[in-house]
Design goal:
Elements (H helix, E strand, L loop, with lengths): L1 H10 L7 H16 L3 H17 L6 H21 L4 H18 L2 H17 L3 H17 L3 H14 L2 H17 L5 H8 L5
Helix pairs in contact: 1-2, 2-3, 2-4, 2-10, 3-4, 4-5, 4-6, 5-6, 6-7, 7-8, 8-9, 8-10
Length: 196
């Protein structure tokens, strides 16, 4: 996917930060997380963020929510790799979660739940993380956002001990596989980031 995206963007206009640039940033940062490169994802988002802010795209609610979620997830992914900077990076993620909450839309609130769950996990608060993941699952299920819901379910299954946790994780893996995901254990952290 990365090669095709780079080839397409090479042919695209480099004047301004267009919708294609927004989608490219989203795709590449999520690929970075999938590949286990949280620092690269965070660096990518941080580098492109000024261009995104200067564009008009952040005036669109769904773009704002998607990009704040992405930036928060990238910060949490980087925090897992850079323990020395973890407090700072988690604070950045918390700021984006607050921004999402202020949007007061179902979509943004769902993204806030899953981001806050990652923050709780990063701060060694597994019980809080599990509650937030359950809220995220329900919200994503209600919006038919299958991969987001399955990612939250996967991480919650990993947090819960015993048969219940195993059953949740197995269900989530099955749901992701049905959507074409080959590696659920690598895909889940793309949307539900911050869990070891």
């Amino acid at each position: 996917g990365r090669r095709e995206s780079c080839e397409a963007m090479r042919l695209w206009s480099h004047r301004g930060f267009l919708v294609q640039h927004v989608l490219d940033l989203l795709a590449h940062a999520q690929m970075d997380i999938y590949e286990g490169d949280g620092q690269g994802a965070h660096r990518r988002v941080t580098t492109d963020w000024p261009f995104l802010q200067d564009s008009l795209h952040m005036r669109v609610k769904i773009v704002r929510a998607s990009m704040w979620s992405l930036r928060g997830r990238c910060a949490l992914a980087a925090a897992l790799e850079r323990p020395r900077d973890a407090r700072y990076l988690v604070r950045l993620a918390r700021q984006d979660a607050r921004r999402l909450r202020k949007e007061r839309t179902r979509y943004a609130t769902s993204l806030a739940h899953i981001l806050e769950a990652g923050i709780a996990a990063s701060e060694s608060r597994p019980e809080d993380a599990a509650v937030l993941l359950a809220a995220a699952e329900a919200a994503f299920d209600a919006q038919e956002m299958k991969l987001h819901a399955a990612s939250a379910r996967w991480q919650r299954g990993r947090l819960i001990a015993g048969n219940e946790g195993q059953a949740l994780a197995a269900r989530a893996a099955r749901e992701m596989t049905e959507c074409g995901v080959l590696r659920p254990e690598r895909f889940a952290p793309v949307f539900a980031t911050g869990f070891r």
